[in-house]
Amino acid sequence: MSVATGPLFAFDNSFVRELEGLYEPWQAAPASVPRMLLLNEPLAIELGVDPAALSAPDGVAVLAGNLAPDGASPVAQAYSGHQFGGFSPRLGDGRALLLGEVLDMHGRRRDLHLKGSGRTPFARGGDGRAAVGPMLREYVIGEAMHALGIPTTRALAVVATGDQVAREAMLPGAVLTRVAASHLRVGTFQYAAAHDDPALVRRLADHAIARHHPAAGEADDPYLALFEAVVEKQASLIARWMLVGFVHGVMNTDNMTISGETIDYGPCAFMDAYDPATVFSSIDHGGRYAYGNQPPVAQWNLARLAEALLPLIDAQETAIEVATEVLRSFPERYDAHLGRGLRAKLGLTGDVGEDEALIDDLLGLLQAQQIDFTSLFRALSASLRGDAERARSLFSEPEAFDGWSQRWRTALSAQAFDPQAIADAMDRVNPVYIARNHHVEEALTMASTGDLDPLRRLLDVLARPFDERPGLEAYAAPAPPSFGEYRTFCGT
Ligand code: AMP
Ligand code: MG
User: Is this structure's pTM higher than 0.85?
Assistant: First the structure.
């Protein structure tokens, strides 16, 4: 890396300043022929950077890891992680670097992070590289999640490196620039805790409180309050995933943030037909990270966070009890978020108790008849506008649906809103367009031939997921049966 002339970003690197012991200073491996593939212009502007400066040769060189921007302090971050239940004490950024932090136009601190920028001291056997396809995939899915209003890391850019990376075949390489509220993970706390140095865990916890959960700093027991804040954020986040049928696919503790953002889009995908057993990852043989398992897995991961925080909790004799009590509040918090979300999806504002059976019965019907989860809710709002057939025709045995629909209509008629207003409210929470697997695959296949237009079109559709637009019907439809059973491969 050489040093750039003008400051591209106004860095302020609190992680490096405050958390020595949790990183290794490191430099990116230069790319042979950096070339911009996708630049997230609105996000650049949000970060206070001129998109034109990022597209210029020096900007592309920065995003490829060839040029260290002024004020950056690139480090590979250290973390541990439970991967599919097994503990790895030393994972860390094997192929990524934190460049530094910037304050965005809203004053929020955001990490700038390069993924695919070469081997680091944490690379173990890996090559430190990333291929174009999975990096474009992370870009698309992250943007889709963001547009759905779900907290997520985002991609600022994907730059082709001009180098080949060896996977099952030789593939073109890329570097993704990731923007995150931070890259603090449950695994970061596990790493600090494994060093048997309460001062390190405390520094990390203080940093996390200041950065993400400042209210916890005012609590009687700040570290217990930090834990509770993360439990609450994750309960909310997982509910948001479930409400749009998102399957993360690799919910290891190193892939769960302290900020409550979704991170690490590897073998993730959106479910078509409703089925709690849905798995897309080619390596998740036991279904550990299946759609329906995500809430208990999140709670399991949070138990690992609690273990790391125990030495800091004030009430030492009762630390385990008080932390366990907070941990046990996860299902209740999750159910509250999910229940509120499902009622909103159905336009229900009335009595919660009554709605529960109605919701359970609907999900049972969807599972039994393999109904597309996304299409159904927009078809239901259409039925309130007089088009009953759209929902009915989704069911192979519509009689069962007719009975349910009657009960739903009765519940709605007890509310003091006209059907049009209810339908409009439903349409504000039920997306028409999700990142359908067949469209994502098709767009990535075209991108691999050098044609990025289908990917840009898809990004454009996904940027306004609630806004039904004529001509985009194909993007709303589930995959044809010929697409087969979808499998994704770990983010390589
Ligand atoms: P992930 O599956 O992307 O969450 O990564 C899990 C761990 O493997 C992290 O420590 C990564 O840095 C590391 N890793 C993944 N791919 C590579 C690679 N190609 N080279 C080096 N490290 C990698
Ligand atoms: Mg990861």
Answer: yes
283 lines ligand 1 (CB under 6 A): no
Q: 464 CA to middle of ligand 1, Å?
A: 32
Residues 6, 151 within the same domain: yes
Q: Which atom of ligand 1 is nearest to the CA of 130?
A: 19
Closest ligand to the CA of 183: 2
- pLDDT tens readout for residues 224-280: 999 999 999 999 999 999 999 999 999 999 999 999 999 999 999 999 999 999 999
State yes or no: is 451 an active-site residue: no
- The total of structural domains in the chain comes to 2
Question: Which strand (E) or helix (H) includes residue 68?
Answer: strand 67-68
d(CA 308, CA 330) in angstroms, rounded, equals 18
For residues 71 and 97, state if they share a domain.
Answer: yes
User: Is 393 contained in some domain?
Assistant: no
| CB-based neighbours (< 5 A) of ligand 2, an ion | 255, 264
Ligand 1 center to 130 CA (angstroms): 9
pLDDT, position 488: 79
Name, of 8-22, 347-361, 410-424, the range with top average pLDDT: 8-22
- DSSP, residue by residue, 31-58: PSS-EEEEE-HHHHHHTT--HHHHHSHH
- Tell me the CB-side half-sphere exposure of residue 161, using CA atoms within 13 A: 30
Nearest residue by C-alpha to atom 17 in ligand 1: 126
Q: Are residues 69 and 157 located together in one domain of the fold?
A: yes
